Amino acid sequence: MDHSGGTSANIQASLAGRYATALFELARDAKAIDAVEKSMRAIAQAVSESADLKALTSNPVLSRSDAKKAIAAVAKAMKLDALTTKTLGVLAENRRLNETVSVARAFSMLAAAHRGEVTAEVTSAHALSAAQTKALLASLKTRVGSTVAIQTKVDPSLLGGLTVKIGSQMIDNSIKTRLNTLANAMKG
Q: So what's the pLDDT on residue 69?
């Protein structure tokens, strides 16, 4: 069963996906998929945790050259691999640094598909603990029948529970959805 066809077609449909696909092809040719994935994950995490870095990636008035210099300095300080560093430079050049996290997420999905893994996008009201993540991985592996890589996002509006999306299939276990369903049933 080949999931990769559908995955890459979906990913290429978005702007971030096109950057991720180009980066993935370069990384594959350079046999650097793991290194790039690690770097992309690190920069995505840094953007979500650092107010300064978030400001850098979303600052519309920063000149292209200043954005390029700043992101190059960040990449050097974080010891990111050459391909990731170059991609961040291209994002800065095209005024697309705000897509960094999306590119990282799309790259991880391409890398997982390349390894034959299925990627599940998991959104939860609170960050999952290591134990919850492990339990979720085990349950998804049983359900899907193959190794599942998960990407997590936190959405406080979920109220509780989580939603899991594998490809176009949505497995929803959130309180928000159940409340909406209940509200609709009561309207009917």
A: 96
The structure's pTM equals 0.69
Cα–Cα nearest to 106, from 121, 91, 92, 126: 121
> Per-residue pLDDT tens for 66-105?
999 999 999 999 999 999 999 999 999 999 999 999 999 9
127, two tokens:
């960050």
Cα distance between residue 164 and residue 170, in whole Å: 6
Residues in the chain: 188
Q: Which residues pair with 152 in a beta bridge?
A: 122
Q: Which residues, in sequence order, are CB contacts of 18 under 8 Å at separation 6+? A: 12
- Distance CA(160)–CA(74), nearest Å, equals 35
Give Cα 174 to chain centroid, integer Å: 21
